[in-house]
Amino acid sequence: MEIDEPEQATDSTEARVEPPRIRRLDESVVNRIAAGEVIQRPASAVKELVENSLDAGATSISVVVKDGGLKLIQVSDNGHGIRYEDLPILCERHTTSKLSTYEDLQTIKSMGFRGEALASMTYVGHVTVTTITEGQLHGYRVSYRDGVMEHEPRPCAAVRGTQIMVENLFYNMIARRKTLQSSSDDYPKIIDLISRFAVHNISVSFSCRKHGANRADVHTVASCSRLDAIRTVYGVSVARDLMEITTSDDNPARSIFKMDGFISNANYVAKKTTMILFINDRLVECTALKRAIEVVYSATLPKASKPFIYMLISLPSEHVDVNMHPTKREVSLLNQESLIETIQTAVESKLMNSNTSRTFQTQAVNSSVYTSQTSHISGKKDPENSAFSSGTSRTKSQKVPVHKMVRTDARDPFGRLHAYWQDGPASQHEKKSDLASVRNAVRLRRNPKESADLTSIHELLGDIDSNVHSGLLDIVKNCTYVGLADEVFALLQHNTHLYLMNVVSVSKELMYQQAIRRFSHFNAIQLSEPAPLQELLMMALKEEDLESVDDDNDDLKQKIAEVNIELLKQKAEMLDELFCIHIDQEGNLTRLPVILDQHTPDMDYVPEFLLSLGNDVDWENEKECFQTISAVLGNFYAIHPPVLPNPFGSGIQFYKKRREASPTKDLGNESANPEDVGEDDVDHELLAEAETAWAQREWTIQHVLFPSMRLFLKPSKSMATNGTFVQVASLEKLYRIFERC
Ligand code: ADP
Ligand code: MG
After folding, report:
1. Ligand 1 pocket, 90 CB below 6 A?
2. Would you say 64 and 72 are in contact if contact means Cβ atoms under 8 Å apart?
3. Residue located nearest, by CA, to atom 5 of ligand 1
4. Which residues form the DNA mismatch repair protein S5 domain (predicted)?
5. What would the pLDDT profile of 582-626 be if each residue is shown by its tens digit?
6. pTM for this prediction
């Protein structure tokens, strides 16, 4: 060994004795690499060209595209044109007419400023420019390669403005071209882009078409109003369902901005969010803002459709960093969080108040019997209740993050039920529930008495409202999440005070209130396999008295289970129609409601849920019945500590001695052999699972519970006194203590 090694080393390093030479990259290589960043795909080239035309003051811009932009992109405008003497350097890198000193960046109004776009295009495609300036008799045409003119500009006939043609994009970047060719082509993206520009720049006419087509796919004429522009581009059905929205903030300590726009109302139905966002007239994306608005929609409207949003935000230019992204697509904003919160609040109150003049369209999608029936029910004049009385009836399956749904460990002692979990496309169910909602609507019209259902729900909502603690409401709405204090309490800050909040009680109440607000309008969580009530109820009953190992008791338990199953089967129709809890005739649970979007209950608690559905519901009186079912749901969906003990705390012991305290026997798995494993053996798999469960829970508390609590929770008076919220410190006092130290 000792002898061999040095020999080997000499052998293998012989080739590396001399370090490789560092060389300056060829200018053209550098430029091509940079160009690949600025022009990522055909749509980014179109964006740069259209922005140049807008910067040139054009009032008419037309785009022609061939092969998704890979063969040809041609953008023609009627802007101010380009001077003859500038043509030689037009396509060199960093040549621009828009910026001269770095400080100008702070106040720049034009969209371009880097002088990189045209140059980049010449490194990855063939660029030809035809342009004429005011007062000239003829224009010039010139082609560029790698930043330089290929020949002297040639005089030619031209109409006012500039036409830029990019051919064979990425001809010299084989990999990029291949991926773009194999991925679905860029034309839809280009259409989307032009549509956005057209909606925002209403004094400019846009057209966009495929090469050789005689019809344009987007065509707008300069119009007088934004809504007209939206109607032209996105259609009457979109424009009809929009509401104007505006808000602003003028507090230098928080944020300064103004927002105007249009957002969709409850009648609008779409599978994908359309968000057209301009910040200081720049078309940008802001994922955080988009998500924040989606949260409001999905939670406010029962049949959560994705929204349509056109939004224009103006803020002092020194608050926007436009130079963050090579394509200037994402921007970063000063005080982004507070800005987003203000906008969220505005959207929420707009949605809540939009209930007064609403009509509902109920349409069966999958049933030929019902397709021709459309019913209109006018909305109630009660903004408070908009959350449940509004909405369209089209059912969509709810997206649940995959990692939340399936546990992959087949030997999972607790989590067998997770195998039932599925983000079901649930087409069967969609059909049925579309049918069900049409039937409901038809029945409601025929027999108005049945809408009496809603009276007790109105009353329950009224009870919640009249029981609000206003001080707590303010805390809940304006608090900041600090962290988890222990397994049950979270720490939050409101102004200068710190509070402990019981996560379990608060989430229980929140879920209860949401269950009532969404009453009879739930989306469904489909279980991939029916979960047998018999087994689940037995599990719950056994859990109830763990001490007793007496098998005689089992008979009694069987009986209790059977009685419960009968009862639940009897109530199945109602549970399904009003609460989306589906129990089939064989006595299996197959479906659960979505109570809070992005949140699924911990399936380890299904047995207890079913048991208390049987035991704790008052089936006699309508109002109490709805209330108790909602409470049982609330309890199930609340954010409990995971069943597995906390591995980050004292619970770690559990994973060392698991075999003795094995919970597997509770699930009837007798195969585990206690002699197999020594005392200190840690069950790593189970430990890892527990760690995930606990980490996930913390994430859910911060990112799902807190935001939805701010929006929807109406904290009751008792929460102020029963230990749900406890003030632990006031920061002023703490500062005073620190000062002394
Ligand atoms: P930037 O827009 O960042 O200045 P570009 O590479 O996009 O850089 O364009 C370089 C320059 O070419 C611009 O500053 C502008 O003066 C000129 N230019 C580009 N396109 C047009 C156009 N359609 N009409 C008039 N001038 C244009
Ligand atoms: Mg530009």
Report:
1. yes
2. yes
3. 115
4. 230-352
5. 999 889 999 999 888 778 898 889 999 999 998 899 988 889 999
6. 0.53
